[in-house]
Amino acid sequence: MSFKSLQIGKHTIEIPIVQGGMGVGISWDQLAGTVSKEGGLGVVSSVGTGYFEDKKYSKKNVAERPLDAINFYSPTGFKAIHDSARKICGDKPLAANVLYAINDYGRVVRDACEAGFNIIITGAGLPTNMPEFTEGYPDVALVPIVSSAKALKIICKRWKKRYDRVPDAVIVEGPKSGGHQGFTYEQCKMPENQLEMIVAPVVEEAAKWGDIPVIAAGGVWDKNDIQEMMGLGARGVQMGTRFIGTHECDAHDNFKQVLMDAKEEDIQLMSSPVGYPAQGVVTNLTGLIAKREGPDVKCISNCVAPCNRGVEAKAVGFCIADRLSDAYNGILETGLFFSGTNGYRLKELISVKELITKLTQGE
User: Fold this and answer.
1) How many CA atoms lie within 13 A of 90 on its CB side?
2) Which residues fall within 8 angstroms of residue 186, CB to CB, at 6 or more apart?
3) DSSP 191
4) For 41-98, how does the pLDDT look when each residue is reduced to its tens digit (9 = 90+)?
5) For 11-41, how does the pLDDT look when each residue is reduced to its tens digit (9 = 90+)?
6) Which segments within 209-329 are labelled E, that is strand?
7) Nearest 5 degrees, angle CA 40-CA 46-CA 51?
8) Domains of the chain by range and CATH?
C-alpha cells in the first residue's frame, strides 16, 4: 500500500505524516524543518518560544524564566524558530501548533501568520473563533484537533455561520497521545474513546461539511498503524512521541534518554493545571508532587488560562510551564517529560529521514 499525498488547504504534504507539535522546545526548528524537508509536515510548537531567544539557557541549570505570556509566547522567538526551520525545508509547507487554552491565543495565532507559517493547528479546547485571528491571510490553512464527531460538528457550525468557512483539515486524537488529553481520566480508559473507534465517526461528520481530510493521532507508531487508520478513512496521521527518538528532535539528550529508559508501566496519566489529565513518564518530579515537596509554584509566565494565574498549579502541585522548560533543559530532578503510551518503545535514536523511510516502507 503506497501512501497518497495529503492536501491541507492550498498546501500539499507529499507524505501524509504530520509531526505532532511538542512544547516546550521539543519540536522547534531542527525537528520541524527536517520533517518538512523530508516530505512530511513539520510542526513548530508555539509553547515557550521565549526560551529560544537564549539558546545558551539549554546548557544551564538556572536562568530567568520568561515573564508573562508576551514573553513566554515570544513573537521574536517564534519568528526566529520559523526562519531557522525555513533554512532547512525551504518553501515546503510548515505548520505551527497553538494551544487554544493558552493566554494570548489570538495574538499567538496572528504571530504565526506574520511569521510565515502555512498551516496552524489548534487543540486543547474548541477553537470556535480561530478564523477571526487569521483575517488577511487567506492561504493559511486552519486545522483544529478534536476527540469526537460532536466536537467537529460544533466547530463547523460556528465557523460556517460566523466566517463562511470550514476547517481545511481536522485531527482526531485518541487518548494514547502524549501530553494533555481531550478526555477525563475515566473516559481515557473507555473502549469507545480509543482512536480506532473515533476515527470513522469523525470521517463521517467531516464528509457532511465538504471534503475535509481527517488526520488520525494518538498512539500511531508504525506502518501497520498508519495503514489501519487509512483503512478507517483517515487521509493522514499525526505522530509526536516517535519523532522524539530522532537526532534532529530539539529535545535535550536527557529527555530522549528518559523515554528510552522508560518501561511501559512508567507512562501514566497525571493531573495538570490545565484541567485535563496529561500523559507522561513517572519520574523524580512525580514523587515530589505526590509528597507535596515539589518546586515552588510562582506563576512567572502566566501560560494557560485554565490555570487561573497559578491557582490550579498550586492545587495539583506544580507549574506546568516551569516543569516543561526544565525538561527542555534536561533537568532530571524537576523536569516534566510528556510521552504517548508507546514512548517506552523508543530504544535508539535515528534520523528523521530513516524514520520516515521506516514508516512508509515498513520496519
Assistant:
1) 4
2) none
3) G
4) 999 988 778 777 665 444 444 456 766 556 676 788 889 999 999 999 999 999 999 9
5) 999 999 999 998 788 999 999 999 999 999 9
6) 214-217, 236-239, 267-270, 278-281
7) 120
8) 6-251+346-361 (3.20.20.70), 256-328 (no CATH)
